[in-house]
Amino acid sequence: MTTKTNDVTELRSHLFDALRGLKDKTMDIDHAKAIADVSQTIINSAKVEVDYLRVAGGTGSGFIPDAPAALPEPDNGVVHQAPGVTVRRHVLK
User: Fold this and answer.
1) pLDDT per position as a tens digit, 10-31
2) CA neighbor of 11 nearest in space, from 41, 51, 55
3) Residue spans per domain, the chain
4) pLDDT per residue over 34-54, tens digit each?
């Protein structure tokens, strides 16, 4: 038995599978619309979750991964990367 993670990565995977299915005509439009509707409901609940995390000062949950620890201080515009994010510091002299 496989354990499902039920996170944003899995949701993206299902959405891209549906898109590929539509493209190669192995999925009917009604099925893809149903997936899109359910996905939109999940996305809307994630938006509420993000608002809650912002207000409560949380860092993540099972659906939205924990935020990485504080990024190191930039060194004169050096690019720092975290999962899914690239940060560049611009300094006005």
Assistant:
1) 888 889 999 999 999 999 999 9
2) 41
3) 8-69
4) 999 999 998 898 888 888 877
| Cα separation, 74 vs 51, whole angstroms | 28
Beta carbons within 10 angstroms of residue 35's beta carbon: 19
What's the pTM? 0.57
Query: Do 39 and 15 contact (CB within 8 A), yes or no?
Result: yes
Backbone angles phi, psi at 81, to 5 degrees: -125, 145
**Contact, 14 vs 31, CB < 8 A?**
no
CA distance 45 to 50: 9
Which residue do the tokens 């509707």 mark?
A: 37
